[in-house]
Structure formats: C-alpha cells, structure tokens
C-alpha cells in the first residue's frame, strides 16, 4: 500500500468534462480485496454515456469499447472522478474518451489516474436499429 501512496499525483484534465463521481464500497471488491474490474467498467460505461446522451437525444446503446486500460487498482473508499470528452460524432454514433482518477482515502486532494477507455455509442430507434443523430444536436463541451 505504501507504494500506492508514494506514486506521483496526476493533474486532472482540463480538456474533459467531469461527468460522474462515485465511491466504491466493500460489496464491489474482488477476491483480492480490490474493486472488481467489471464494476469499474460498468461505471465507465455510465460516465461515457453522459455526453453522447446530449447529442443523440434519445435511446442509444454501447456498441464498442475499443480500448480499456487499467493503470492502478481501485480501493474501497477511493473517490473516483470520471472525465469524458467527445472524440467523434458520426451519422449514427458518438465515440468518447473516459479517464478515471482516484483520490485515495488516505491522501485526499491528490489524484492518481486509475483507468481510461474509448467507447462508442450508437443512436437507436424503438426497435433497436441504428438511427441518424439529429442534425440540430447541441454541441458537446470539449468535443
């Protein structure tokens, strides 16, 4: 644990929007006592959907996770901050980059980048088929 506390702190991104903050709890741990990677992935998917929802203006589905990199473990009690930016808006899809930073319980105020991912969401109609993104979609901050 001491090597986790001695790692250099990361600066929070200024080119992305804070879209979610969450504190993992003991029920979210794996057999090693760290936060289960699948739980973190689910939170990233939720955070990643915030900016596309503004653009898509309706139903959408996660269709791809091009890259997911775990850089550091997440621990119970960490305060996780999820930052996102729109990378690409296509005819039916929106791709976003999500970065996750942890404030360790014992070192509040300093941040460690714990993971990042690139996700693509597709606008869908009532039958679950891709549909065009509205032409009048609002501009996404940071994208």
UniProtKB/TrEMBL annotation:
* Keyword Heme set for record: no
Q: Where are the transmembrane segments?
A: none
UniProt name for this protein: Acyl-CoA thioesterase
One MF term in the entry's GO annotations: long-chain fatty acyl-CoA hydrolase activity
Q: What CDD domains does this protein's entry cite?
A: BFIT_BACH
Q: Which superkingdom? A: Bacteria
| UniProt family annotation | Belongs to the acyl coenzyme A hydrolase family.
């Amino acid at each position: 644990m001491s090597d986790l506390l001695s790692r250099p702190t990361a600066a929070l991104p200024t080119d992305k929007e804070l879209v979610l903050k969450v504190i993992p709890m003991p029920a979210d741990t794996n057999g090693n006592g760290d936060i289960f990677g699948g739980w973190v992935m689910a939170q990233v998917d939720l955070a990643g959907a915030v900016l596309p929802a503004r653009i898509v203006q309706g139903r959408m589905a996660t269709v791809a996770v091009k890259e997911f990199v775990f850089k550091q473990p997440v621990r119970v009690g960490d305060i996780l901050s999820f930052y996102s930016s729109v990378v690409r808006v296509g005819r039916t899809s929106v791709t976003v980059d999500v970065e996750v930073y942890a404030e360790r319980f014992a070192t509040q105020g300093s941040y460690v980048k714990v993971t990042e991912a690139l996700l693509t969401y597709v606008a869908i109609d009532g039958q679950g088929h891709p549909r065009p993104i509205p032409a009048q979609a609002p501009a996404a901050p940071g994208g």
